[in-house]
Amino acid sequence: MKRLYFVLSVLVALSMLLSACGAPATEKTVLNVWSFTNEINTMAIAFEGTHPDVDVVYTMIPMTNGEYQTKLKAAIGTADTPDVIALEAAFVKEYVEADFLADLGELLPIAEAAKTYPFVTDVGTNAADGVIKGFAYQATPGAVFYRRSLAKEYFGTDDPAEIQALMADMDKFIEMAAVIKEKSDGNTYMVGSSGDFQNPFFANRAQPWVVDETLVVDPMVEKYIETAKLFRDEGYEAQAQQWQEGWFAGMNDSLVDANGNSKQVFSYFLPTWGLPYVLAPNAKSADGAHDTSGDWGVVTGPLPYQWGGTWLGAMAKSPNLELAKEFIRFCTLDEKNLTNWATGVYTNDYLKAIDPQVPEDQVQAAGDFVSSQVVVEKITASFDDSELSAFLAGQNSYAGFAAAAPSVNAKLMTGSDDAIQRALNDPINQYLNGVIDADTMWTTWKDALRVEFPNLVIK
Amino acid sequence: MNQASLKRNYYGYLFIAPFVIAFLIFGLYPIYNTIALSFTDATLMSKTGNFIGLMNFERLFADDIFMNAVKNTWLLWILNFIPQVGIAMLLSVWFTNARLNIKAVGVWRALFFLPNLLMPAAVAALFFSLFSFYGPVNQFLVRSGFLPEAMQFLQDVTVTRSLVIFIQWWMWFGQTIIILIAGMTSIPLPLYEAAMVDGATSTQMFNRITLPLLKPILIYVFVTSLVGGMQMFDIPFLLTDGRGSPSGSIMTNNILMYLKFSSSKGHIGAASSVGVLVFFMTSICALAIFYFLREKDSATSKSAKR
Predict the structure, then answer these.
(1) What is the SS3 assignment for B51?
(2) CATH fold of A142-305+412-452
(3) Quick check: A279 and A252 in contact, CB under 8 A?
(4) CA dist B229 to A375, B68, B70, B72, Å?
(5) By the number of CB atoms within 10 A of the CB, which of A351, B52, B87, B213 ranks highest?
(6) Nearest-by-CA chain B residue for A74
(7) Min CA distance, A434 vs chain B (Å)?
(8) Per-residue pLDDT of chain B (306 residues; tens, 9 = 90+)
(9) 8 Å CB contact between A17 and A57
(10) In B, which residues are within 8 Å of A239 by CB distance?
């Protein structure tokens, strides 16, 4: 379903692009922006609202199997490069470390004034020469979301502080999973997929994947696989896969196993953006029969982590470099825009007033956690009685994220993370299914890495 | 030779010029460029590449990933080509058989051809959803007692390979039917009438008349399918994670090439080396097909005419 959706959205994006090309020539300056979701299009339209002489041509290419990265790489040295590109956490470093992006140093004073979280600018900075090439509008500390009703049933409390104490570290998290399995007769799973806690484990490694062109397998990676195996063998996970049907079904309590038995998922590891983009939209099943809104609580979880985030960079060769920089400033550092973005000002009607051809589903709901501490401090209180707080039974998640964000660390991020972690998924699945043993899993993974990293030293 | 005919000859070159120019730019140059790139360590992120001799090829044979991809590609192609031609041949014979006289052949032909019009991406997404862990196939098989519990179909080597083979067969047999029917209807009817008068059976007519006269068409089907099969990409790429999972069982030549190309730095040099080997492998096999299935008596009959 997800893939089909992506295919359709590509078609929509393409048709938008074509219709934009077909429009009669105007005096407007054209700014080409590429991204992998339709999210930034909202800001692009808002940008057109404040800059009436600019026409932002927005192209969306999905990244399910890395299509966006491929398309970008193929276009990057040619005349068809866009002016502004969106870069996801998984591959932003590759571009920051290469020579194609423009130096955005002149925006640094503005970022200082906005008190952009340090890890956000760290990720956008090339460690080798200290040049900053990317800014982000989000900061993305991670959390664990859990079902309050199930917590009450199995642990006698749904209070976030007490639940956090119960899952304070990974050992306690495993104990919790065992209790849930026992008390529910195996009908409630601790997590939808063992892939859920991959990010938290990887975020707590001591070393990055690649040191001096040599592959490093940190003990935390082995610990992750051990834990995943335990969850599979003990039946603590629903065997759904992230971003696929069963995983989403667990969010609205409509998960049904092949025999027709109803199954529950207790918790989901999701970062800031996971709440407004993933959990809240999926808390209601498509037929409306299941709705878990208001039944969720959020805690920091067993391991601190951060997940995802989108950075914006300008191509150094862009003929509209100044405008591209202005676009990046507007999206990532402009106090008014970030406030509008996070507080739900950008409704479909708001966007339609600027551009009547905006699609119906183009909208920015309140609640995305932004990168500017100044904005965060100003708007946190406004979420006390917001729709999202109601979703969490009155808990203000924004305040929790605001407390977690300054301690986020992005030192481990390298340009190769995405490909290295993608290559690990299938060997892990085969190992969890019991088809191959652990040794075969490691060798399969290392062989696969040689395909993509011919110069990497693998021991 | 007078001047007029000389001029006429020049016109001939003029007429074929568009093709030759387009071929040189879009056909020959890319092949040349791919071969040239395969001897370098060029990447998309660096722009400049250094000549590294046969290093890329050595790396391909250093582990069994490349050989595994070649084996997979052949396996997936052969196992879908045999039923594809077999069933297409059977249906084509039935459709063209004067005795059976099947009604509404055009409708059947269109129905069989229809899957070919579907976007491979949509087909892959459809099968992906059908066979997912919480998908309808698992529900059906478990509830009707064929399976004790739900299984991860797309993490199973045999199931995933079978799905790719089935999809390839299902999408392409209609195309083969159209070509075979066209070939069969072009065989002169009097040959069959004469055979019937002589008391030939249907099997004899098929073996002695249809097959020999269909040979050029069959060679065409064989070679185009081989070329397409060696470049198999979209269905296996989209059905799982785009890396030939599970266990690299549907990793084809082109997926391997794409993985090298789409790696974090975009190793186009290393990717080209895969392309070059596939190019030579396909060319040699196609030439071999032409050689072994050539008209063996054509040379003698030509000399006899003289």
Answers:
(1) strand
(2) D-Maltodextrin-Binding Protein; domain 2 (3.40.190)
(3) no
(4) 56, 16, 11, 11
(5) A351
(6) B44
(7) 11
(8) 455 555 667 888 888 999 999 999 999 999 999 999 999 998 887 767 889 999 999 999 988 899 999 999 999 999 999 999 999 999 999 998 877 888 888 899 899 999 999 999 999 999 999 999 999 999 999 999 999 999 999 999 999 999 999 999 999 999 999 999 999 999 998 998 899 899 998 899 999 999 999 999 999 999 999 999 999 999 999 999 889 989 899 999 999 999 998 887 889 999 999 999 999 999 999 999 988 887 765 544 444 444
(9) yes
(10) 133, 150, 152
Distance from the Cα of B269 to chain A's closest Cα (Å) equals 11
Q: Which two tokens stand for residue B125?
A: 């997404």
Q: Write down the domain spans for chain A.
A: 2-139+307-404, 142-305+412-452
Closest in B44, B59, B129 to A76, CB measured: B44
Are B124 and B234 in contact, with CB atoms under 8 Å apart?
yes
Please tell me which residue of chain A has the smallest CA distance to B141.
Answer: A258
- Residue A27 vs residues A46, A188, A323, B8, B242: alpha-carbon distances, Å: 19, 60, 15, 53, 43
**Which chain B residues are within 8 Å of A66, Cβ to Cβ?**
242, 262
**Nearest CA to CA, how far is B70 from chain A (Å)?**
15
Determine whether the interchain pair B247/A430 forms a contact, defined as Cβ–Cβ distance below 8 Å.
Answer: yes
The token pair that represents A321 in the structure block: 């470099």
* Helix boundaries (H) for chain B: 3-23, 29-37, 55-62, 65-96, 105-113, 120-130, 136-143, 157-185, 189-197, 202-205, 211-230, 234-239, 253-261, 268-292, 298-305
Q: Which two tokens stand for residue A96?
A: 């920051």
Domains of chain B in start order, with CATH, are 61-305 (1.10.3720.10)
Chain A contact for B245, CB < 8 A?
A: yes
Q: How far apart are the CA of B221 and the nearest CA of chain A, in angstroms? A: 31
Best residue in B37, B45, B66 to probe A by mutation, most A CBs within 10 Å? B45
State whether residue B134 sits within 8 Å of chain A by CB.
yes
In terms of residues, how long is chain B?
A: 306
CATH classification code of A2-139+307-404: 3.40.190.10
Q: Helix, strand, or coil here: B40?
A: strand
- The DSSP call for residue B208 is I
Q: Are B190 and B156 in contact (CB under 8 A)?
A: no
Count of A–B CB contacts within 8 Å?
137
Q: What angle in degrees, to the nearest 10, is found between the helix axes of A438-452 and B253-261?
A: 70
Structure tokens that stand for A238 in this block:
């629903």
